[in-house]
Predict the structure.
Amino acid sequence: MQMIRKLGLAAALAGGLTAPALAADVDLYHDKANWQDAYTKVLGEAPASTEAVPYADTSSYQAAVRASLRTSSAPGIFTWWSGYRMKDLVDAGLVADVSDLWKKYTDAGLYSPSLASAYTFDGKIYGIPNLVAYWAVFYNKKVFADNGIEPPKTWEELTAAAEKLKAAGITPFGATVEGRWPAFIWFQEFLVRQDPDLYNRLMNGEAKYTDPEVEQVFKTWKDWIDKGYFTDPSISFGTAGTNAMASEFAKGDLAMILVGTWYAATLQEAGMSPDDIGIFIMPNQKADMGPAVIFETGPLLLAANSGQAEDAMKVADYWMSAPAQQTWVDAQDFPPVNKDVKAKSELIANLVTEINDGGYTQINRFWEATPTPIAEAAVDELGGFMLQPDTYPQVMENLQALAEKTWAAQK
Amino acid sequence: MSGTASAALAGGAAATTPTARPFSQRMVPYLYVLPAVAFVGLFLLYPMVVTLWQSFTSFDGITDPVFNGLDNYVELFADPNFLLSLRNTLIWTVASVIFPVTLGLVFALAINGIRGSGFFKTSVYLPATISAAAVGILFTFVFDPGNGVINAFLEAVGLGALKQRWLFESPLNTFAMIGAYTWQQTGLNMMLFLVGLQGLPTEPLEAAKLDGCSPWRLTRQIVIPMLAPYIVIATLLAVVNGFKVFDLIWVMTQGGPSRSSETLAVTMYREAFILFRLGYSAAIAVIISIAAIAFSYFYMRSVVRQETQI
Amino acid sequence: MSAAAMAGDRPRVGREVAFIGALALTVFWLLPLVLLAMNASKTPEEFLLTSGLEPPTTFNLFDNVARAWAKGLSSGMVNSLIYGAVGSVGAVLLSALAAYGIVRLRIPRGLFWFLLIYSGTVFPFQMYLIPLFNLYLDTGMYDTRFGMIAFYIAICIPFCTFVLRGFFLTVPWQIQEAAALDGASSWRTFWSIMMPLAKAPLILLILIQFTWIWNDLLFGLVLTKSNDVRPIMVALAGMKGVYGATDGPSVIAATLVGSAPTLLLFLALQRYFVRGLTLGLGK
């Protein structure tokens, strides 16, 4: 008994002797543990001492941030998601208006105004860019070269390439449901490639999931699945720790992966050298449609009620400046958003040039472009479709039912 | 019934002291009990009450809660996903009684008293010392359709046709996860039964053996019935824990694909932390609690009955 | 005794068969752990490129652990050690006091008090999450070691009280009456008589609760955010992810290292496990 008492006392003392860490002027909360080092590097030069706080898990991160936003202990800055995912925070008045900050940078010609569209509500801008990624197709250069394939510029070239690869025993495209959310990747792509306007209308509830054009999308998708163009959708994608898709790509068994540009780092971890990775934007089904690319933008938001609000604004200003952005881009190899900043890798630099010079329409991805209840429930339905493509009529019905429910509740 | 039991105890105490006890002395038991009650009250009971209240509101975490009566409950029972979740939870509860408990019993009977039993005991119990999340990661790996242990093994022994997408077909995925859960929980049940076996009285067993009873019949008709109280405890613990399983499922399938492997605990988490429908999620929590209480009630009744018969 | 008698009556061949059977079963049972260890020793590239069944070509376990160590594994282990030790000992102490008060001091309406405490364990844990979260935010306990310890103590109390109550019911009354005749106060009786008797169940409970606290993921996720406070399972969870590069062997190695303390604790305290269960179940 004496021993237990002593042990207990000792541990209690140890537990009590916890000096709280020196509080920084600004806290930056985020849920991307892998980026902690990059944040620390960039924020090292910030005008106010800023500490990046990584949360381990996305859903508890969201709950923690949402709960703290009404109080003054809310973080000065936090990462979030654009579009509908931030709309409810904006509507509740919990996010600071940063339109003036943007004006400073767009007036100086350093930022393109259209970049802020995903953060704009009622004419005011509420976020600054944390990450911009374009959703394009990574391809294994060696596999292409060995099979005499060039990056396709038209839909016909794309399907021809797929056929050639299939004949050579190589899986053309990667597709997965692992982690739940990836199920929307090909859905949005097929929609946009068929008709970007249809995509926009569907995201805003002006088109129905049961419309014949949407059925056409599913038919095309099913056709590709039946032809064996995709990997088995149960392939692992990194959520649980293994990443078979990346390793198949590295081994040359998988030729193309449609994903955000941030995936380049994963591919290199899998053993690909940057010279072996190529990227191209998926061509439209019909050549006469203007070029479009799906992008993803994650904002940094400033909490309106935070006690750190003033300093946070200064740090936000610093974040958008060229020196900070250059450090960020160098650390992450993201497409640069500040025009004075150079991309780190040739791969990304070429892609960005093509998008800017080619007059590409930039379309926000599914995850943020449509209300959250639809997006979350849709990936479950789409995942079911990917595993059992014959069920697409039922999937379409289910999607429309939940879309209707959500739009009705929004009124 | 229980009232008379404790009254009897209290009355017994009063009977041993001839005069009424002074207030300070009567307060003493409360002082012992209060710290525990305070902790439980603040950290466990208070959240329960709040959750119960929240189940009658519509609350998204960033605006004020809005009272909406029984709407959440009505919506729950009309939602096919909820009913599927309920079905899965029942499968889990039944399976987590059948598999870990039965297997634990079998192991206990097999390992008891043989050479090197200490080593076997420890090995079987080892999985119980690692976390559910770790088990989930491990078995996601094991069940991986492309690269995983099971499919690779089937392929290697020529049974490639039996390969499955273990975690991606329903209800196969639920059973695969139950397999992982069994791997972890069997050891605990085995330990419980080993304790029981070692406490068995020798005379009835010796007598039966002298009568020429075969070991098999001995086990079935004498040993197992004598282990009945332990089986009851193991079953109760298994049921209550089966309701609560979350980490394992969340790590392995996140309740998918298409929400096919969700149990009530997973659905509750999803509604709260992904869809931010806190009132709705609270209603699910209340339903889980009612079910768990109902099961526990029967056990507590039998335990209390036993004790008051002393 | 009875068990050995049973075993000794099996024919020699039967015993050998049983032994081999048990051995085979154990190997099969431990296979997943062996695979874990194998894959924890691979380099990240090797991990991505080889099948899970293939053994590693080089031994990289310590490198993998070192990387995980720097990424938050070390602080996670320190935190969880504190939570596990203080939490389990604290809960066991408070539960012993409560069980003593209920059973030995015969508090009026003792069953009500016991059920009140026990009801804390009947509800699914997830139910506590959001209200606790808000409570912690409001009272400033969010992301503090104190807050975590307090919670872990609270959640371990119900089960510990359940077991210790069962144990205390089996202690003969004569011992207590003898102490009272000697003029011992309830406090003295508790510490000098009851607790030493309860040594095995107490240690069993400390072992079980330490393991539970150590393995907790959900409450650590919701109630902490910073490295200084975060328990180990949360630190592990933070190492997986799709955004950016994944480092499989490091995660698996970290999982192994993270599981080691509870494993070792069990091995060290096993003999109390069975004794404690026996006494704690009270028949």
